[in-house]
Known about the structure:
Blueprint: H1 2-9, H2 22-50, H3 76-90, H4 96-121, H5 130-151, H6 176-195, H7 203-220, H8 223-229, H9 240-258, H10 267-284, H11 288-294, H12 296-315, H13 325-331, H14 336-356
Amino acid sequence: MLTWLAEYLSQYYSGFNVFQYLTMRGILSVLTALGISLLVGPTMIRKLSSYQIGQTVRDDGPQSHLSKAGTPTMGGALIIVAIVLSAVLWGDLSNKYIWVAVAAIVGFGLVGLADDYIKLVRKDPKGLVARWKYFWQSVLGAGIAVYLFYTAPENSAETQLLVPFFKDIAPQLGIMFIFLTYFVIVGTSNAVNLTDGLDGLAILPTVLVAGGLGIFAYLTGNQIFSDYLQIPYINGVGELVIFCGAIVGAGLGFLWFNTYPAQVFMGDVGALGLGAALGTIAVMVRQELVLFIMGGVFVIETVSVMLQVGSYKLTGKRIFRMAPLHHHYELKGWPEPRVIVRFWIISLMLVLVGLATLKIR
């Protein structure tokens, strides 16, 4: 939005041309989202506390979590608002990729909001019925997949599968693009939600992965860099730098209040929305497999739940003391901050490995 204003004003003062640079707008997007989060955060926490929208804690989990009961939840709504406002202010509103990312984070965020509302306001611990939750996730995921497929040029880079570390392997997916996209978006949404179990555990890996995807978006949308790195050039996808920057800024602002001991939790509204946004961005920059690497913490957490459930149903025995995996280490005696920081370090390492795929090909 502000790019149009800057373009108009540049005819009177050339200094406004600086706002046409993608890097500058990316930085401003980070700072805008960060500022919104930091400024609105305290008021949001007070409002949630006054409405008694607080976390409920399972009594069969780590005993240290019992003290978290009543901590304000649904703070993820602030993250989404900060991201969308920042992206709309600094992004090119004629760019389809920005709007697809906005649709993903808002749509999945609303599903999470419904789940949080039922659990926290209506006091129904089951939340949104699982089949309806998955139904709406599926509708949104499939809708985005179909839109991206039918708006992509035929047999273009937008529907290729890029394989990390191999520059010459990029098969056309055809109709399978829809199924892969659906799986990535819905899967990432639920994976981030499963990871969101400790103070700050999910938000910093989300920030790191968003930053990594922002780099991929910039390089993929720049013909010179994409040619040099031998990755497909996709016109316009570089604008996602603005959206990724907004995730980074809003996430860091939220972490200010969510770091141990947390003053507020993001809830499903934040976790489902952010996960879907990461999956959608990865699809649009054609880095689904790299997302699997960079988001390895989310993958491990999800796999731990799948293994736990499968083992218990088949053998009646549990592999872990408790799933997701972070609870296993808590029950082994690791203090919560140790679990969180070590998962953060692993996430940083995995994002760096993902970025290394740009050169190791």
